[in-house]
Amino acid sequence: MATKKNIQTSWTAARDKKLETMQAAGKTAAEIAKALGTSRNAVIGRSRRLRGIVYQSDIDSWTRANARRSAEAHKRASARADQQKKALAEMTKALNAGMAKPRAMLRAFRAGAYWRQIGDHFGISQQAAYEAAKKARRPRK
């Protein structure tokens, strides 16, 4: 069985107090790190653990990252919605051309439409749409 090692920390109550004092004076994490003889990351980590203090650069970084992720997600959702509309339009076109309903439903699903959307198109539940399309999947005997 492995034994746990006691992690030694150089953060004492006096160093914590000095860190808080320097932060209150408006010093940057780099300036505090230099004065305490430690790294900037150590100062940032300790300040977060002590008081939950967050630097503006962190907030800016999170804001940029979240905005980028949000924009990417919106772009993917828009593309998915367009693909689903196209799949439903193709299903309608196939039905008008005489394709069997279960086969058209299955093609629409494989093209990206959700069972819920297919069911809504026919006024049935998503489960009923799925069950109806299952018939088109079965191999012919």
From the alpha carbons, calculate the radius of gyration and give it in angstroms.
30 Å
The number of E-state strands comes to 0
Number of helices: 7
Shape: rod-shaped
What percent of the residues sit in helical stretches (DSSP H or I)? over 70%
* SSE pattern: HHHHHHH
Strand content: under 5%
Whole-number total of structural domains: 2
- Sheet bearing the most strands, described? none
| Ends distance | 61 Å
- Model regions low in confidence, pLDDT < 50 over at least 5 residues: none
- The overall pLDDT average reads 87
| Structural class designation | mainly alpha
Give a written overview of the molecule.
The protein has two domains: 42 residues; 59 residues, no CATH class. Helix 5 packs across helix 7. It is built from seven helices and no strands. By secondary structure, it is mainly α. The model has no long low-confidence stretch (mean pLDDT 87). It is rod-shaped, with a radius of gyration of 30 Å.
In short:
The chain is mainly α and 141 residues long.
Which terms summarize this structure?
141 residues; 2 domains; rod-shaped
